[in-house]
Amino acid sequence: MRAMILAAGLGTRMWPLTDSCPKPLLAVGGKPLIVHSIERLAAAGIRELVINVSHLGEQLEGALGDGERWGVEIRYSREAEPLETAGGVLQALPLLAEADDRPFVLINGDIWCDYPLQRLPATLAIQAGQPTQAHLVLVDNPDHHRQGDFGLQQGLVMAEAQPRLTFSGISLLRPSLFAGCIPGAQALGPLLRQAIARQQVSGEHYPGAWIDVGTPQRLAQLEQRLQPDAIHFSTMTTETSG
Hints:
The protein has 242 residues and is an alpha/beta fold. 28% of the residues lie in helices and 25% in strands. It is built from 5 helices and 15 strands. It has helices at residues 33-43, 57-64, 84-96, 189-197, 216-241; strands spanning 2-6, 27-28, 31-32, 48-53, 73-78, 104-108, 111-113, 126-127, 130-131, 134-139, 151-153, 156-158, 166-173, 201-205, 210-212. The chain has a 7-stranded mixed beta sheet. It has a two-stranded antiparallel sheet with strand order 2-3. It starts with a strand and ends with a helix.
C-alpha cells in the first residue's frame, strides 16, 4: 500500500511562523510535524510515500530527502501553485496508483493523531454492488469545529447522520474516486459528498488523540501535550551518545 501526505498548503493561518518555514516542518515534540506522520506510516508497514510540495517546497525536500532514515521511500509531487486536496492528489496519481484500483492512504500534513494506521482496511468493501470509494477516520468534534462534518450509520459515512463527527484528515481512497476530474485546483469535499450520496464511503469513529495543527495556539497546545515524549527522546539521545 502507498500513502500520500498533503504538504503543499500556504499555511496562512500559521503566519508569521510559516513566512520562512513550510507548516509541515514546524517542530513539535522534538521533530518536524510531518515526521510524526512519516514515522506512523513506517510503523504500519507503509513504505512508499508521496508528498506534494509547493510553498517553500525545496525546504521540505531538503529536510526529508528520500526518506531512507525512516525506512521509507519518498517521492515528491511538485505544484507550481497549491492545487488544494483533490487537485493535488489528481496530479500525484501517477505516483500513487497501483494495479486493480488499489486504494492508498491520504493524510493531511497539518494534523497529529495517534490513530494506529495498521487498522486501516487493506481493501475496501463492496457496498450496494459497487466498490467502496473511500474509508474515512472520523474523530470527536474539536472546540473550533463543533458542528462536525459527517455521521456514521452501520459503518457507512452519511452526510446527515447523528451524532456528528469530524473528518480527521486520515482516509483510504481509491484512484477511481478521481475519475473524470479535470487537472487544476479543486477540493476533495465535493467528491467525497458525491460518493457518500451513493453510499460508497465507509468510516469509523476513532476516540483517541487528534489535533488539527492549524494555528500557532494549537501548535503550542500540541507541544505541551508531547512534552513528556520530547523530554524522553532527548534523554535517550543523551544516554546513547554518552
